[in-house]
Amino acid sequence: MKIPIKKWYESVQTRYSQQKYMSREIKPFTLKALEKNIKDLNEVYDEVRLKIYKNSITEILPALNGKYGNFTDSPAFMVIIIKSTGEHHWTKAGYIGEAAVLEATAHGLGTCWIGARFEPSKTNVNIEMEAGERLAAVTPLGYSSESYNITRHFISKLFPHRDRKSLDELCPDGYNKDWPGWVKNAIKTASSAPSRLNRQPWQFFYGDNRIVVDCKGKSSAYKRLECGIALLHIEIGALDGGAEGRVEFGEMGIASFIKEGEK
Question: Is pLDDT of 52 > 80?
């Protein structure tokens, strides 16, 4: 997957979950650009596909069978759909879904990861799925409510690392300040990845030019999805730190970023 490093790295720094949205529609140019990006992302893995629906997030929330806070109407939402039998499909869903989320952030749109069991009978929105597919997660898309946005931005500036695990907690074998700069940047970038109830289920290991992403404790489906989100953050941070490399699913841990070349 081709990553626009600077754009998504900046999105990682500025994005946070949004539940309040303005009523205005998404600009046609913005929506067209995002749909083009999603079309490209749908070509990356057979197990995962994304789609935008021009409906409010509130129209599908009752079908997700969970409690997610007080959302206001959004002009659109995006679904992340997976094939039930795909290898590493949950991890890839987090990886590809977060790519779309960061692209939406770069276009000035608010988002919020929502994952739950989908019950089609509880919504009038026809989510088109083929045999063997299931809805893994959704996110609203829209312009954040100005007062809400300002408040959250102010808090994030005052407390940039609030409720975040320390780097030592994230690295069970120890966080080494003498690691290469790209490794430290990658792990720091991954430390801000979103997760359900901010549980941050991932842990990181480094050695032989490889950063391994793994789950802490039992590896449930949604923890694997969240580790996929963290994996993309690892890759973005590594690339921003000057490394060239690739991601690998399985083999070691849930997934890895492997540095290649001499750069």
Answer: yes
In sequence order, the 6+-apart residues with CB closer than 8 A to the CB of 248 are: 255, 256, 257, 258
* Domains contained in the chain, CATH given: 5-150 (3.40.109.10), 167-260 (3.40.109.30)
C-alpha dihedral, 183 to 87 to 215 to 163, nearest 10°: 80
Condensed to tens digits (0 to 9), the pLDDT of residues 149-172 reads: 555 555 454 444 457 899 999 999
CB-based burial label for 52 (10 Å; 0-12, 13-18, 19+): middle
pTM of the entire structure? 0.93
Structure tokens at 112: 């919020």
- Bridge pairing between strands 255-260 and 48-53: unpaired
- List, in order, residues 6 or more apart from 158 with CB less than 8 Å away: none
